Automatic annotation (TrEMBL):
This is Histidine--tRNA ligase. Signal peptide: none annotated. InterPro entries: aa-tRNA-synth_II, aa-tRNA-synth_II/BPL/LPL, HisRS-like_core, HisRS/HisZ. Residues 14-351 form the Aminoacyl-transfer RNA synthetases class-II family profile domain. GO terms for molecular function: glycosyltransferase activity. The keyword rRNA-binding does not apply. Homodimer. The keyword Nucleotide-binding does not apply. Keywords: Glycosyltransferase, Transferase. The lineage of its organism: Bacteria, Pseudomonadati, Pseudomonadota, Alphaproteobacteria, Rhodobacterales.
């Protein structure tokens, strides 16, 4: 890996290219309030972030990425439309991979614009594509919005839909829920025994932990409601599986998704957006006929992506993480906007990997 001074110089060069594209450079604090990130991602964020306690500010996290603080900054006093760029360290714990860096530099580009999201998606992707073209990387795209639309279109309870939506970014948990809601997986014995009791709270004994009686009773009621709900149909499960299996060049992927939308109309608007995005990418000079689309792409990234996603990887170096990733995160602006919202899309590049791959050529 190149020396840090060289990586910093490369970060400055990349950020200057984003500035030439119209982005305003911004800075964010390295220490971020943990409460905001925990509200967004739950306790899972602790597994990949460094935390500390400040006697005045409470629990803090070393910045795991830039997007959340940049969105907060924009929603508080940003103009519209807006383009931002930034460069600096991010910190991620790597307990399962000692070879991966736990501290590294990121350079990013974010676009906030209300008009024509397909065009904004294409603008961001094409800019990254041009900047990284000398490295000969493999580009992949996806659209989490299609899977989200499919979940919304299921004929099941709102509670089950909410559970599936919450775990879209956890593929194993999502699959386990699909299997449970469809009846493919048996109800755990402990849950069956609980639901068989006429009054589980009467036999509960002393309460241990933070949950009160009302919260526990509400959870039992939710389990009873779920147990009485009709299972997901085999047809709907097959349609979800068909969406997740789409992995082709973009025109063929679009054709396949249009076929699926005949039986699952809920995904129709998201598929239309994909078609508009491909037209916009073509207008940006991208060879969409060769561009890969994977319906499951991006599901293990940070959980704020809710639409178009993309990444650039070195096919000859499978040991390396993606050189660049990005996507659309409209819902994040709603959650951080205090009543406001604005469509947003962006991405990040790791300058250390850009240098390392450039030196290897």
């Amino acid at each position: 890996m190149p020396q840090k001074s060289a990586i910093i110089s490369e970060a400055v060069r990349l950020r200057a290219l984003f500035e030439q594209a119209g982005a305003v450079p911004v800075e964010t604090d390295i220490l971020q309030p943990a409460g905001i990130l925990l509200d967004l991602y739950g306790e899972d964020i602790r597994a990949r972030a460094y935390t500390t306690h400040d006697p005045l500010r409470g629990e803090q996290m070393l910045r795991p990425d830039f997007t959340v603080p940049v969105v907060q900054m924009h929603m508080e006093h940003g103009a519209e439309p807006a383009r931002y760029t930034y460069a600096g360290e991010v910190f991620r714990r790597q307990e399962d991979d000692a070879e991966r860096a736990s501290e590294y530099l990121q350079v990013g580009y974010e676009v906030f614009a209300r008009n024509n999201p397909a065009q904004s998606d294409a603008e961001v992707f094409a800019l990254f594509h041009r900047m990284l073209a000398p490295l000969g990387l493999r580009a992949a795209t996806g659209d989490i919005g299609i899977l989200m639309a499919a979940v919304e279109g299921l004929r099941t309870t709102e509670r089950r839909k909410a559970a599936l939506m919450r775990h879209i970014w956890r593929p194993r948990r999502f699959r386990a829920l699909i299997d449970r809601f469809s009846g493919r997986a048996p109800v755990p014995e402990s849950r069956a025994a609980l639901l068989a009791m006429s009054d589980p709270m009467a036999e509960a004994g002393p309460l241990i932990g933070l949950r009160g009686v009302r919260e526990i009773a509400a959870r039992i009621d939710a389990l009873r409601e779920d147990a009485s709900a009709a299972p997901l149909s085999e047809t709907e499960v097959a349609l979800i599986d068909a969406i997740l299996a789409v992995r082709e060049t973009s025109p063929f992927a679009l054709e396949r998704l249009r076929d699926i939308s005949v039986d699952l109309p809920a995904i129709g608007p998201a598929v239309d957006l994909l078609a508009a995005r491909l037209d916009a990418l073509d207008g940006q000079g991208i060879d969409v006929g060769a561009l890969q689309f994977e319906a499951s792409y991006g599901r293990t990234q940070m959980e704020y992506y809710d639409g178009f996603v993309f990444g650039f990887t070195a096919e000859l170096r499978p040991d390396l993480p993606p050189v660049a990733t990005g996507g659309r995160y409209d819902a994040l602006t709603r959650r951080l906007g205090n009543g406001g919202e604005i469509p947003a899309v962006g991405g990040v590049i790791r300058p250390g990997l850009v240098l390392a791959l450039g030196e290897a050529q």
